[in-house]
Each structure stands twice: as C-alpha cells, then as structure tokens.
Amino acid sequence: MTSAKNTQSIAAYDNAPFFEKAFRHAVQHSLIDQTRIDEIINEAATGSIQIAEYFEESSHLRKNLEVSMKRMVSLVSLYLEDTTSGELDKAAQLLKEKPFRALSRGGSQMLKVLYSMPEDDHFGSPRLDSEREFLKRCLSKSMSVAKYRQTFKDCEQFKRNVDFATLLVKRIGTPINQLNEHHASAEQVIRTSLLSLAYGTKKAGGNKTSFLDEASLFEIFTSIRKEYGFLGDVTCRTRFIDEVPVEFHDYAMNVLSSIKNDDVPKIINQSVTLESVFSDLKDRRYFYLHDQLNEVSRFDKMFAADWFALTGGTEDDSLLLTLLLCAAAGVAQKTTLKVSEARKAVFSIRENGLLQNEVLNLIKKAPHDEMEQLRSLWGDFIEEATPFLLDHSDEKLNEVMTYLADHCNIQKPQK
C-alpha cells in the first residue's frame, strides 16, 4: 500500500509544473528560507492581479485570479526550465536570487519573441491573433520547454527560408509585394529561383527581370530537354553561389542537388510528354506568377493553340457540345453546323457508332484546367443524347434533330 502511494506521489511530482519542482527542491534542501518563501507568495499574488489586468479580465473575481496564478506559474516554469536546462539546483538558486515577477517576465518575453517570428515560410503571412491572444493560447496549454524549443527552431527555419528566398528574388529583380500578394511558399520560390539562375541563364526565361510566370517556367523545362537532346547533357551554372551569403550555401547546394537528381531526369525523359512532367512538378515543387487578368494562362494558350483555333476561346456549352459531337461522328469539327451537316453527323454515328476516343483526344487539346469540366459536360450530354442518336426507328431524324437543336449550335435554315 505504501509503495502504491509513493508511486502516485512520484507521478504527481513528475507532472507538476517545473516551478513547483524547483520550489520544493529549494525548500527541502534549505536553499531558500521562510522570508524568501513569503516574498515569493506576495510577489505571486501581486503578479496574478497584473496578469489578469493584462488579459483584460477582472482581478476582483477569484476564478480569474486562480487562472492568472496558473498562467504565472507556467511563465516562471518555462523561463526556469529553459534557462537552467532542467537542473533543479540552478533553478532553486534563481528562485533565491531573482524576484518572482522577474522570472515571470522572463517567460513572457520568451513567448513574445516567439510571437515576433513567422508562423510559416510563406510570404505575406499575417498573424491572425494579437500578441495578447497568442500568449493566452500558449498559457492555456502550459507550453512545455520541449514544445517551445521545437516551435522556436521551426520558426527560425521559416525565417531563414523567407530571408534566403527574398535574397534570391531581389537578385532576379522581382518586387517582394508580388510574392506577398500570392502568399508564395519560400521553399518553392527558392527552388524556382535556383532553377532559373542555374538552368535559365542563356536559356529561355533566363534574362527576365521579374519572377517567372507559368509559360516562362515551362520554357526553362523545354530548354533543358532540348539541350539534353542535342548534347546528351544539361549544363548547370553555379558561379552565382559564390555571391550567396555563407549561411545559405548548404541549403542552396542541397536544393540544386535535388533539382539535378530528382527533377532533371524527369524533364529529359523522352518517354513522357513534357507537358505531363510539367503538370506534375509545377505546383508541387515550384512557384510561378499567375496571370490573374486572364482566366486562361499564357502556358495554356501556348499548348492549346489548336483548341483555341477550333473554339475561338468560347465557353458556350452549345458551341462546345457541337464541336464534340462532330468528333464523336468523325466529321469535320466545327462549333456551328448547318441542318444538313448535323443530319450527316447523326447518320455517321448510326453507321459507325460513337467515336468516344476521338472526343477524349479532342478534349486533351483544351487548356488543362478546363479538361475535367469538358469531360463532365460531354458525359452528361451523351448519356441523354445516345437514345436519340441511335434510335433507328426515327428514320426521318425528327426526334434527334429536335433534341440537337435544343442542346447544340444548329443553324436554322433561312426562309
């Protein structure tokens, strides 16, 4: 029974705030006398009132003072354990020598420093909470030293990433506000910048004075594949690294190594289309500026030239369905059909069947972002249209032409 009680006592001691461990240690080893104990109690009482007022909570309510006391103990615990690395003798000595409120301010200052650091490694990331709200959130969970140190380490890395990305972006000549507006990932900005500086120089996209857009990024991918096709190798310029501050050298070389070993082999792989490789890598590993003024990017226009030639860039469902219907019938592809042409398309479908693969191949010529919507548009249409298109009992095509006139762009004969 005694052993069980001791075990419970030890467990409670292990889970106690570090201040309580240090205070108990100081008392048990006579490192602080009764006078100092009384001083700590009085300072804690005064400090609790100040903490309640800081968090804009009434200091006249006992419940608020109890919460404030817990917060103060958390602040003191955080400071003591971090400063002494958990050594009770050193912590007890600080309890003896330093005012209790000074220890509390030490913990508060630690959290304020954490608040001043970036929460992530994206440009333009705003703090969603105030400093007061941040402290309240940390203290409500009694942030441990281990958690504090890991969070601090993460935030330091975020800051280094943003600092390095900023340095590279300034070298390229891009205004930082462009990245802030896009909430750009520093890691992706670094990767794109290093790709441009190492592989873009003397290649497409290498002489730009602003950050890469989608088409410019693809041009670098294209130049890499072409160079490999001509030379059997890809040149990589790294002299600019000499101008990079020493603290970023290892990071820069690691990213360049990843580009060389992970991305370049995919880019030069002739068995996979470059568009497919680019689609896989561009959003996952790189950052590029989007043209928000145009819904269709310059990149999409570059590779959807045939589609735009056929559609004129229309988004009208009836025109698009007419074009896809032509592909399904194996007739000349148009967005407008005369009645006679529409009838010819129906006869072709009844004779040869629906050429679904031709429709899907045509959709692949569309801008990447529109493909899924086009598949859905065609799928809904053809499911309902098929009974009309294949109804051989409708010999004069009255029913099917009525249906197509309602859903496609069929020119009515002039009177």
Topology of helices and strands:
Blueprint: H1 2-15, H2 18-28, H3 34-54, H4 62-84, H5 88-97, H6 100-116, H7 131-140, H8 145-172, H9 176-182, H10 186-200, H11 214-231, H12 249-267, H13 274-285, H14 298-303, H15 305-311, H16 317-329, E1 337-338, H17 339-352, H18 356-363, H19 371-389, H20 398-407, E2 410-411
Parallel strand pairs: 1-2
Q: Return the string of H and E elements.
A: HHHHHHHHHHHHHHHHEHHHHE
Give the distance, in angstroms, between the N- and C-terminal Cα atoms: 107 Å
Give the biggest sheet: 2 strands, parallel
What best-fitting shape do the alpha-carbon axes yield?
elongated
Uncertain residue ranges: 1-13, 202-207
Describe this structure in words.
With about 425 residues, the chain is mainly α. The chain contains 20 helices and two strands. The protein folds into three domains: about 1-115, no CATH class; about 160-295, no CATH class; about 305-410, no CATH class. Helices cover about 70% and strands about 0% of the residues. Helix 3 crosses helix 4, helix 4 crosses helix 5 (about 90-95) and helix 4 (about 60-85) crosses helix 6. Residues about 1-15 and about 200-205 have low confidence and may be disordered.
